[in-house]
Design a protein that fits this description.
The protein contains 1 helix and 4 strands, in the order E-E-E-E-H. By secondary structure, it is mainly beta. A two-stranded antiparallel sheet has the order 1-2. A two-stranded antiparallel ribbon has the order 3-4. A hairpin with a 5-residue loop joins strand 1 and strand 2.
């Protein structure tokens, strides 16, 4: 679910690094919103990241 319908941006993986330099896995979630957008003239609910919303890549309904 956490994937942008426009650009395909999803979760990113990396490591938590403690002071003693031990590593554990962690996740960065993208800022995904469920918005109503116009797709081929009809309103549809899509999952869109905030960057695509801000840049105007999607026309909101």
């Amino acid at each position: 679910m956490a994937k942008c319908a426009v650009c395909g941006k999803g979760v990113h993986f990396g490591n938590n690094v403690s002071h003693s330099h031990r590593r554990s896995n962690r996740i960065w979630n993208s800022n995904i919103k469920r918005v109503k957008c116009k797709v081929d003239g009809t309103p549809k609910r899509l999952y869109v990241c905030s960057r695509c919303l801000r840049s105007g890549a999607v026309e909101r309904a």
